[in-house]
Specification:
Blueprint: E1 18-19, E2 46-47, E3 60-66, E4 75-80, E5 85-89, E6 99-100, E7 113-115, E8 124-126, E9 128-129, E10 136-138, E11 146-152, E12 155-159, E13 165-169, E14 173-176, H1 192-197, E15 253-255
Antiparallel strand pairs: 1-2, 3-4, 3-6, 4-5, 7-14, 8-11, 8-14, 9-10, 11-12, 12-13, 13-15
């Protein structure tokens, strides 16, 4: 299982597949802070990932399994028969020198990519398209996979990692397997310095602030927040408030996700 960095290649990243992205430190184009507690961190280059794997019916060979500082999953460097090299998300069980292919219909093997309608029910898939030809959009984080339940009409019914059951067009592509690095969820950073290297700045509790700085602030000693529901620094309801806006994909949800207690 690809769950330890000891199994990763020691080679340097493929130079042609690297990009430099300017750091934003949580600020938008106007310079306003829109995401708090971000900034600093170690320098890192972005790896260009081929989420769509548009090379149909062209076999690819795994040259290396690599760490990606920009995502929780590991990535695999693929060399295709036409000598083109690309990065893809690596699934659990993929090894160096393995062969993969993206086709309308292919063998049900780890790493192969094909249309949902050609994958039998009960199979685990990841990096799934929501619209045909737009590339994988969902189920891409470490250790995740979605299970195909049934094919019906124009749609396939899939059970998401959250427990949600939704319909997805049968001619959308998906990769067979489970995203690599499943033990990521158990990772312990051990010290504050590692979190700073990841680009996170210190987070201060609202109750430790003054009343002018946060709605929870003020009081003597360890005081409660003094209100019925918690609020953000700007006075809006927080923690447990529904923030999802209505999306066109909502109509495809058969069963909502499981709520955490």
């Amino acid at each position: 299982m690809l769950s330890s960095r000891k199994l990763l290649s020691k080679k340097k990243p493929e130079k042609k597949l690297l990009l430099f992205l300017k750091k934003k430190a949580g600020r938008n184009s106007a310079g306003r802070l829109t995401v708090r507690h971000r900034g600093g961190g170690a320098k890192r280059l972005y790896r260009v990932i081929d989420f769509g794997q548009e090379k149909l019916n062209v076999k690819g060979k795994v040259l290396a399994l690599e760490y990606d500082p920009n995502r929780t999953a590991f990535i695999a460097l693929i060399s295709y028969e036409d000598n083109d090299k690309r990065y893809i998300l690596s699934p659990v069980g993929l090894k160096e020198n393995d062969e993969i292919i993206c086709s309308d219909k292919a063998e049900i093997e780890i790493g192969n990519r094909m249309k949902l309608e050609n994958i039998p029910p009960g199979t685990g898939v990841y990096n799934i398209e929501l619209e045909p030809g737009r590339g994988g959009k969902i189920v891409r984080s470490a250790g995740t996979s979605s299970q195909i339940l049934v094919h019906e009409g124009r749609y396939s019914h899939l059970k998401m990692p959250s427990g949600e059951i939704r319909k997805i067009f049968k001619d959308c592509f998906a990769s067979v397997g489970q995203v690599s690095n499943p033990k990521k969820r158990f990772e312990n950073l051990k010290k504050a310095g590692r979190r700073r290297l990841k680009g996170w700045r210190p987070t201060v509790r609202g109750t430790a602030m003054n009343p002018i700085d946060h709605p929870h602030g003020g009081g003597s000693g360890r005081s409660p927040i003094g209100m019925k529901h918690p609020k953000t620094p700007w006075g809006k309801p927080a923690l447990g408030v529904k923030t999802r806006r209505k999306k066109w994909t909502d109509k495809l949800i058969i069963k909502g996700r499981k709520r955490k207690r």
